[in-house]
Amino acid sequence: MMQKRKVVWDLCSGLGGWTESFAQSDWVVIRIEINPALEYVPFTRIWDIHDWMDWIDDLPHPDLIVASPPCEEFSIADPNKDRNDRMENPEKYPELEIALENVRTCLDIIDYIKPEWWVLENVRGAVRYFKKYIPKLKPHKQAIGPKQHQQFFLWGNFPHIMMKPNFTHAKCDNRTAQERALIPFEISFELKRAIENHVRITRWA
Ligand SMILES: C[S@@+](CC[C@H](N)C(=O)[O-])C[C@H]1O[C@@H](n2cnc3c(N)ncnc32)[C@H](O)[C@@H]1O
Q1: By the 8 A CB rule, do 65 and 113 touch?
Q2: Best CA proximity match to 18, nearest among 109, 159, 167, 122
Q3: Is residue 69 within 8 Å of 100, Cβ to Cβ?
Q4: Of 3.30.365.10, 3.40.50.150, 3.60.110.10, 3.15.10.40, which CATH number belongs to 7-204?
Q5: 142: burial class by Cβ within 10 Å (0-12, 13-18, 19+)?
Q6: Please, which pLDDT band fits residue 204 given cuts at 50, 70 and 90?
């Protein structure tokens, strides 16, 4: 009997790093991205996540949703940002409000669809914003990268992603913002492996 192909949606998909290993296998990949310059990234639909009610019921139901809403506003990399003021008064910073709204919209989509698995990725600097302004997003479940320099913070419902102990990811500044934001293939690969290998206890019932 033919097995039904599994489906993954990639919200705010950029160059598609989150779902690259899925695209190279037999999963159906649907990438949703607002930037028209990325229309040639395979499987990308140039849509706005905020318009989700217009398109959501036309897509095949996903087994997994991954999301990487933009992280620049949460990043602690820019020393010129007044971090405390931004934290206490986000309404003074329209770009920060948009960034929080992007995260809430990804969560609205996940709530509506209720996929078996979902992962939302962001940077270390997002942790305290999410804790204060998006409390329904439970604390992050996994951080990936060398202990002193964890770069990928993951929230959601997903099996633990087993990275190789020597996994590192260098960010070098001569790349474009899109390239720097790309989720490395290793993480996409290990997420796919974790999901495919996961055996639910109910299987033995
Ligand atoms: C952090 S990057 C994603 C990186 C991606 N995970 C990868 O591996 O390449 C965030 C992306 O969200 C997109 N984005 C921002 N607002 C959006 C919106 N309202 N709807 C859809 N995509 C959006 C940006 O254009 C950007 O490409």
Answers
A1: yes
A2: 122
A3: no
A4: 3.40.50.150
A5: middle
A6: low
Q: Which two tokens stand for residue 108?
A: 């609205």
Report the length, in residues, of the chain: 205
CB of residue 115 inside a 6 A radius of ligand 1: no
Phi-psi region of 73 (alpha: psi -120 to 50; beta: other; left: phi over 0): alpha
For atom 12 of ligand 1, which residue has the closest CA?
Answer: 12
The ranges assigned to domains in the chain are: 7-204
In a 13 Å sphere around the CA of 203, the CA atoms on its Cβ side amount to: 5
- With tokens 């139901």, the residue in question is 61
**DSSP per residue, 64-92:** EEEE----GGG-S--TTS-HHHHHH-GGG
Distance from residue 39's CA to the centre of ligand 1 (Å)? 12
> What is the tens place of the pLDDT at every residue in 100-131?
999 999 999 999 999 999 999 999 999 999 99
The residue contributing the CA closest to ligand 1 atom 3 is 14
